[in-house]
């Protein structure tokens, strides 16, 4: 265990763009250090502080600003982050981390073990659904010296060492946040972290400009002088920007999936779906279990039968992924394939709705349900249209409602919705990325990516807990297999797809995807050759 993301952009690389920000690569030929990376952030995040917001754009950008103790390779084994080494006691209850020396925040203040303890036990516990679910298992957190952090757990927790990536456990400055209203702290606008890049400027609706942190603790890093995340709402303009070299990198849903086949053939670009192993993105139709008729599992089962998920994968996602079968991704440990199957069958869906007494009216409609369309690009809009047409065939009338990023997050997290779609990460282990969406203890109003659907089953709660603390993989598999079978029968949400997102990058770029965290990683070693 030792050492361890206007109109068509016709701007040419090197010209001046919005706000006078340079486009293209500003470096001398042959240099491996310096230069400007232009990329895209889509949609624009509501905030850059990853401890307070865990939406994908925040995490992608925030990973350059905030770091955590560890990173993870493509096999999900831990690598050094802020911690240069770590040890686990034989009883699996005590975890000791040794920090690198000379780490500083962007304001010049040293980062110490006290900042780690504060971040893990205070700000994350109150504001981060996934972190809360994990770090509530800590009995005591100590900082015996400035470079040592010790966590003592209440009981063994098998995936604890997998919980310290920059999206789960970003370390924030205690001297700025302690004793304040975290969400109203003025420093949120400055986003002060310890990563290789710091915030220089954020022009809303235009760009976020990061520059190198001169006091970064890793010698020689970062290689780049700056990163500019450009806000380009129009999907066609994003593709043109990539094609013309105005931006050199796209990630997640920056490029609409129908563009992937064409862009993959361009000689100046490389495309990979690597870098999502840690996240294993899982897309589903979120169903508010508190509201009739959605509080009846027969209705939720009917929804599953009514959706041709293979057609969704091929027509909307262009084959980039596979059909999901339940709450655990097939890319994640402890997946169970022997569960109830929901093949496309409108007849079975209609029979279940008839059984409930939801008979179609003269217009063929049985029930009308509002649907919040996630504001994350055309793929999500097309998915919403596909779902609307699918459910209309069995008499469920979806009323699509457009909304901005902040509004979607607010309504979703405060349970002010009936249906929406969401993409949630698995984080390498069901105890980290899956349980938070379904255990009743994580039904927390106002917290995004918690148990927003309101599903509650004491037996599922028990199995999740026992699987989390079991030290044998065989015993963990037994518990996870049992709970997957129960949940697929009860359908708290309608699981849709396991997505393989494309990353497009200029062929001159090096070291972009080096870990399972992918584009969320620090970019400290990214360079133009």
From TrEMBL:
InterPro entries: Peptide/Ni-bd, SBP_5, SBP_5_dom. The keyword Glycoprotein does not apply. Residues 78-439 form the Solute-binding protein family domain. CDD domains: PBP2_NikA_DppA_OppA_like_13. The keyword Signal applies. Keywords: Signal. Gene3D superfamilies: Dipeptide-binding Protein, Domain 1, Dipeptide-binding Protein, Domain 3, Periplasmic binding protein-like II. SUPFAM superfamilies: Periplasmic binding protein-like II. It holds the Pfam family SBP_bac_5. It is found in: Periplasm. Belongs to the bacterial solute-binding protein 5 family. PANTHER family: D,D-DIPEPTIDE-BINDING PERIPLASMIC PROTEIN DDPA-RELATED (PTHR30290:SF38), PERIPLASMIC BINDING COMPONENT OF ABC TRANSPORTER (PTHR30290). This is ABC transporter substrate-binding protein.
């Amino acid at each position: 265990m030792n050492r361890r993301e206007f109109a068509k952009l016709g701007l040419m690389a090197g010209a001046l763009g919005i706000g006078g920000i340079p486009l293209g690569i500003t470096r001398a030929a042959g240099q491996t250090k310096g230069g400007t990376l232009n990329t895209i952030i889509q949609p624009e995040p509501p905030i850059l502080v990853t401890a307070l917001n865990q939406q994908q754009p925040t995490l992608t950008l925030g990973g350059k600003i905030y770091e955590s103790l560890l990173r993870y390779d493509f096999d999900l084994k831990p690598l050094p982050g802020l911690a240069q080494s770590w040890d686990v006691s034989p009883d699996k209850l005590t975890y000791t981390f040794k920090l690198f020396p000379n780490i500083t925040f962007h304001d010049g203040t040293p980062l110490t073990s006290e900042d780690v303890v504060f971040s893990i036990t205070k700000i994350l516990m109150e504001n981060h659904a996934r972190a809360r679910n994990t770090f509530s298992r800590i009995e005591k957190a100590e900082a015996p010296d400035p470079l040592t952090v010790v966590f003592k757990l209440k009981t063994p927790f098998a995936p604890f060492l997998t919980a310290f990536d920059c999206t789960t456990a970003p370390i924030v400055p205690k001297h700025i946040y302690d004793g304040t209203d975290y969400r109203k702290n003025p420093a949120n606008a400055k986003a002060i972290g310890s990563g290789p890049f710091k915030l220089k400027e954020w022009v809303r609706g235009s760009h976020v400009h990061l520059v190198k942190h001169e006091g970064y603790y890793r010698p020689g890093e970062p290689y780049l002088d700056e990163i500019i995340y450009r806000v380009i709402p129009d999907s066609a303009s994003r593709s043109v920007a990539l094609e013309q070299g105005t931006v050199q990198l796209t990630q997640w849903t920056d490029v609409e999936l129908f563009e992937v086949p064409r862009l993959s053939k361009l000689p100046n670009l490389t495309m990979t779906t690597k870098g999502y192993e840690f996240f294993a993105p899982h897309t589903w139709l979120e169903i508010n279990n508190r509201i009739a008729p959605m509080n009846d599992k027969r209705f939720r089962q009917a929804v599953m039968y009514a959706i041709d998920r293979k057609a969704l994968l091929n027509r909307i996602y262009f084959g980039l992924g596979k059909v999901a079968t339940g709450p655990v991704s097939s890319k994640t440990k402890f997946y169970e394939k022997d569960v109830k199957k929901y093949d496309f069958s409108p007849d079975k869906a209609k029979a279940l709705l008839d059984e409930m007494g939801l008979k179609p009216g003269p217009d063929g409609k049985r029930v009308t349900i509002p649907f919040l369309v996630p504001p994350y690009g055309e793929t999500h809009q097309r998915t919403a249209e596909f779902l609307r047409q699918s459910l209309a065939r069995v008499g469920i009338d979806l009323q699509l409602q457009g909304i901005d990023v902040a509004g979607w997050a607010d309504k979703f997290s405060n349970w002010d919705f009936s249906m929406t779609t969401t993409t949630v990460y698995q984080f390498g282990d069901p105890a980290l990325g899956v349980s938070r969406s379904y255990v009743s203890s994580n039904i927390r109003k106002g917290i995004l990516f918690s148990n927003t659907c309101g599903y509650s089953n004491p037996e599922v709660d028990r199995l999740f807990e026992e699987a989390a603390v079991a030290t044998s993989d065989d015993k963990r598999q037994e518990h996870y297999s049992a709970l997957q079978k129960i949940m697929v029968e009860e359908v708290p949400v309608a699981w849709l797809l396991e997505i393989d997102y494309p990353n497009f990058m200029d062929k001159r770029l090096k070291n972009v995807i080096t870990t399972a965290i992918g584009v969320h990683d620090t970019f400290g070693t990214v360079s133009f050759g």
